[in-house]
Amino acid sequence: MMVAWFKEVIFPSPLELANGKIVKPKRSPMVYVLPIIFVLILISMEITGFDFMVLVNRGYQFFVIIGRMIPPDLGFIPKVIQPMIETIMMSIVGTLVGAFFALPLAFLSSDNIIKNKIFLWVNRFVFSIFRTLPILIIALLAKYVFGLGSFAGTVAIALFTWLIMTKMLYELIETVDMGPFEAVESSGAGRLKAFWVSILPQILGQFISFILYNFEMNVRSASILGYVGAGGIGLLLNEKLGWRQYDKVSTILLTLLVTVYAIETLSRAIRKKLS
Amino acid sequence: MKESILLAYKKRPRAWILNLAIFIFIVLIFIASTPYIPYKGIQEKSISIAYSILYGITQPDFSYFLDFSKGALPYLLLETIAIAFLGTLIGAVFALPFAFLSARNVVPKWMAHVGTFFIAVIRTFPAFVYGLMFIRVTGPGPFTGVLTLAVSGIGMTAKLFTESIEDLDMGIIEGLDASGCTTIQKIRYGIIPQLMSNFLSTTIYRFEINVKNASILGLVGAGGIGYPILAAMGAYRWKDAGTLLFGLIVVILIIDYFSGRLRKKLATGQ
User: Fold this and answer.
1) Do A233 and A132 have their domain in common?
2) Domain hosting residue A177, numbered range
């Protein structure tokens, strides 16, 4: 029974249709994919030293810290507000600056506007390399250049947003209706002017929704920025984690949760209105 | 004719008031933010540091790539990929129940709200906080990295899974129902084929992110290439940092390329 089932999966037998035509079903790709994934899992477990028994025996340790986080020290909230505002400000300014510079770069990276293939290819390749840099590394570099503090964090957010937003934007620009652009161009306008009057209005709604999305993401990643000393709520979080004051840590995380939730709700409402 | 055109032109929407309002709003935000973001000038050695890093990345020491001993660059990269791979898979498996429990077309509305809130809570904890928690369980090392990525990935993966579940075409399932299929057959032929490609695509995307996140694991000593990079930067060994970063960038570019192609294939069905 089992063998027959396996045989059917690996070598499916041909089916005869009502009109006498014989159809050979395609072999499911899972036949190759699953064994490969299984082998990769075994190799990865070997490399990472994955040991299920450790989890069973010591897994409760994970909840020790969570236990110490409860109840959160609510009296600490007034001290969290100030850094939280700082983080929000860093995210707003960073996101806006990043978005501002993303538009021209996206213009220069869209294959329906720039016709020079070599320029386009080099441009995209260079920035795809920059895009691989994790925000943590960007924040560290910004810290080395601008010193400890929220200015470095803002620069890191701006750079990160700029790189990601550019990709989102040029992928969007490549899908717009080129009719108006060609019409404006044929009436004698330059490419920049044509882009401004015919493509920008088409992408503006999406552009704003990208800005909001990035803003949300940047508030979330603010905790990492603090870890390297780049200001905001993360700095406070890092300090309290270092001192093992877990009830204060949970207060900070709670504030972050409420803030992110509020921003998400607000931005979802705005995005719904835009679309 | 001409007059009517002129009239229509005169009645064109005046966007400048709105534009001006947005402009003023943005300027106000920038002014309001200045006390929070003080500019303290550029660090003294910054230019030379930035130059050293760029130099390190553009002129990597290729002898690093030929050292296959444990703890050398190729092994670290392999370890990073292994951590990300295992972490992504475990995270995706755990994300499945959360996703189904917060999909509006599967469970009652209040349950979906609870589910989405729970996912939001998981997402709020930064990855390195999970890392610190798991270090108590498994000690520093790549195993901690796997668990950290698994748990911190649940949030995003579950959210994207939920979206694809909510996009399910119920007509197909009703059709199967009408032709007399059993529940198992409905799941096998109606639901799995619809969800599989989306789920796989999300998982591959998360794998991409997890490889990039390897540097964050370095903050808590949870294995992979992150810690060596951060240590090299902290000790001002820019050439080392640049070379390690170069290795990571190459790996990420390769993974990005293949995952992009794979996801395109999954999306278009071919």
Assistant:
1) yes
2) 75-274
